[in-house]
Amino acid sequence: MTGRSLRLRRLRRLTPGRGEAGAGRRRGATPKVVALGGGQGLSASLAALRRITGDLTAVVTVADDGGSSGRLREELGVLPPGDLRKALAALCGDDEWGQTWARVIQHRFQSRGDLHEHAVGNLLIVALWEQLGDPVQALDLVGKLLGAQGRVLPMSAVPLELQALVKGHDPARPDDVDTVRGQATVALTPGEVLSVQVVPGDPPAVPEAVAAVLDADWVVLGPGSWFSSVIPHLLVPELLDALIETKARRVLSLNLAPQPGETEGFSPQRHLEVLARHAPKLALDVVLADEAAVPDRESLSDAAKRFGAAVELAPVARQDGSPKHDPELLAAAYDRIFRMHGRIGPWR
């Protein structure tokens, strides 16, 4: 048995309620939901999920190397805090306290000095990391301060570098394949992204994140930047093992439109195809997509069947025409999926 398998077995023994998802929980409890992703996509999912469950955990990518996060990462050697901050802001309540703190931690300084474009929340998170020496404990404390309606965890205990193989990255050499480094660069790269990997290649997962996936009723993957926010979770071996072995149901939430750069020209079904290339053993139960963003429903259904998943189409986009999810509509879609596709859970 490999060291990775032994670590996962230890975590499984420490995880309550193993067996059927939700087994042994008190009647009337809400489902345990774990959402994985990063950036604005994860924030949209969390803003929706906190409306329908009181037991929510976000597992966040830690490969960001741009902006304020990149500067703090380079200077202090810490995990990039930006996506963690965005997740915490999305979990803030709709009352005055929650919305005030959401604005505060998202506030960016405007100056001619070193503080320019640093986010208040990034500095607060890093300060607590240095004070406490424990990233998870520090994030829990920030969440308590904000009154966050859920927990935020990094997916790995070390900062990661994202690397992508890109065909046609140099327009002058459209058939050549180059290695592109850095999440910020990959997210906007010209050319066709063929695959991504993380460095180091066998990063340690945060134990609390693995335990949360193993103990969940539902795991939600996506939406978000496909190669730089969604797929990286599948490149952390212990986290991927947990996603494969969990008794939870798994829903993949697709984007509303291809992202300029890394998924330019992608159809909904192509998103599933590249996901399968990176995690061929991963099974899904439901693929959620906006009904207006799926021109070929049969092809998407065929791609979903390779994961063992059903396709659910629902209006989840904002009505202003922007490619952004509406929290209320997305919450209604998730709630319907949990009720229609989940095992008979104690939250019914």
Question: Which characteristics define this entry?
Answer:
about 350 residues; alpha/beta; 7-stranded parallel sheet; 10 strands; disordered C terminus
Description of the structure:
With 348 residues, this protein is α/β, with parallel strands linked by helices. Helix content is 40%, strand content 16%. Strands 3-2-1-7-8-9-10 form a seven-stranded parallel β-sheet, sandwiched between helices. Strand 9, helix 13 and strand 10 (310-314) form a beta-alpha-beta unit. Mean pLDDT is 89; it is low at 16-28 and 344-348.
In short:
The chain is α/β, with parallel strands linked by helices and 348 residues long. It has helices spanning 3-14, 39-49, 67-76, 82-90, 96-106, 120-132, 135-146, 183-187, 207-214, 226-230, 237-245, 268-278, 297-305, 327-341; strands spanning 32-37, 55-60, 151-154, 161-167, 177-181, 192-199, 218-221, 249-253, 286-290, 310-314.
Q: Helices and strands in order, then pairings?
A:
Elements: H1 3-14, E1 32-37, H2 39-49, E2 55-60, H3 67-76, H4 82-90, H5 96-106, H6 120-132, H7 135-146, E3 151-154, E4 161-167, E5 177-181, H8 183-187, E6 192-199, H9 207-214, E7 218-221, H10 226-230, H11 237-245, E8 249-253, H12 268-278, E9 286-290, H13 297-305, E10 310-314, H14 327-341
Parallel strand pairs: 1-2, 1-7, 2-3, 7-8, 8-9, 9-10
Antiparallel strand pairs: 4-5, 4-6
Helix pairs in contact: 1-9, 1-11, 2-4, 2-14, 4-5, 6-7, 9-11, 12-13
Distance between the termini: 39 Å
How much is the average pLDDT? Answer: 89
Give the overall form.
globular
- Spatial sequence of strands, sheet with the most strands: 3-2-1-7-8-9-10
**Share of residues in strands:** 15-25%
Instruction: Output the radius of gyration.
Output: 19 Å
Judged by helices, strands and strand pairing, the structural class is alpha/beta
